[in-house]
Amino acid sequence: MFNRVFKNGWFNFIRQGSLSFGTTFALFLALVVGVGLFIFNGLIDYAIEEVEGQVDVSIFFKEEVSKEAIMVFKDELEGLDQVKSVFFVSKEQAYESFVQNHEDDIYIEALKIIEVNPFLPSIRITAKDPSEYAAISEFIDSKEDIEDLIYKMDDFRREEAIQKIESLSANVKTLGMFLIVVFSFLAFLTTFNTIRLTIFSQRKEIEIMKLVGASNSFIRNPYIVQGMLCGILAAILSFSIILGLLFLLNDSLINFLMGFDVYSYYLSNIWTILIGQILIGILLALISSYIAVTRYLRKD
């Protein structure tokens, strides 16, 4: 029974070549948009992780402040629940770091001429979460002798950068979901109309099957198989084409996406992507095919 149903569905799929191609292409577009949104989600997670890894606050102390006083202040900060780490940078370390990072700049010659270390001791504070920097800032401002210790403290704009990335991510995901709905609807309509045209071209055969006592399920199932074959083919094409393009463009994409390795991300989620595309492709085709055939059979 199953072999007969599959054989008839495959026959419909091949015989209605141009219509099957149109259905497959519509499903293909819907699946590509879905994979694109999945990859974009990985890119946003990567971008947020990168920004969070670079978020810290530097506090520069006045030159007359002793190292012991700075260490006491450092210990107080390390006792806060919001603080992940506090790193002390001495004047000498700041000087050496500047020289290493600017060894070919004219600033090095200027430093040699003045023969004075102009850098101030500092501490770098890293919070457990970017949203915690405001609480850390409030603690620092609440200290009575803070003006006697601190020369300068940088702001917390990197937290704002993360919030902007998250806001952009939410907007793009909303747009992506809208596009998925639009393309899925188009795929549904295309599959629906393809099955209807197939049924129309075989209406005499269907009438004969009804006359000899064939059940509705026996008539319906080959057309559902036809739609499912379109969904499976669309999923395989989408998966293979995207994988091939990512492999060929990997180096360029890494540079363009600031280090995000899309190809490796795709491979690390390969089974989720493949199975997800096949299931979604089959589901879209299954629903539209079932509705198209059922409506025709009820009409008769």
Structure description:
The protein is of the alpha+beta class and 300 residues long. The protein folds into two domains: 2-51 and 161-299, no CATH class; 56-155, Alpha-Beta Plaits, CATH 3.30.70.3040. The chain has 13 helices and four strands. It has helices at 2-15, 17-54, 67-78, 91-101, 106-114, 133-142, 146-149, 157-201, 203-211, 216-248, 250-256, 262-268, 270-299, and strands at residues 57-61, 83-89, 122-127, 150-153. It has a four-stranded antiparallel beta sheet. Helix 2 packs antiparallel against helix 8 (157-201) and helix 8 packs across helix 10 (216-248). The longest helix is centred in the middle third of the chain and has 45 residues, at 157-201. The protein is elongated.
The helix fraction, in percent, is over 70%
The end-to-end distance, rounded to whole angstroms, is: 24 Å
Strand order of the largest sheet: 2-3-1-4
Anisotropy-based shape: elongated
Low-confidence stretches: none
**Assembly state (oligomeric):** single chain
**Pattern of helices and strands:** HHEHEHHEHHEHHHHHH
Kindly provide the radius of gyration, computed on alpha-carbon positions and rounded to a whole number of angstroms: 32 Å
Q: Outline the biggest β-sheet.
A: 4 strands, antiparallel
Strand content: 5-15%
Tally of structural domains: 2
Query: Could you tell me the number of beta strands?
Result: 4
The chain-level mean pLDDT equals 80
Count of DSSP-assigned helices: 13
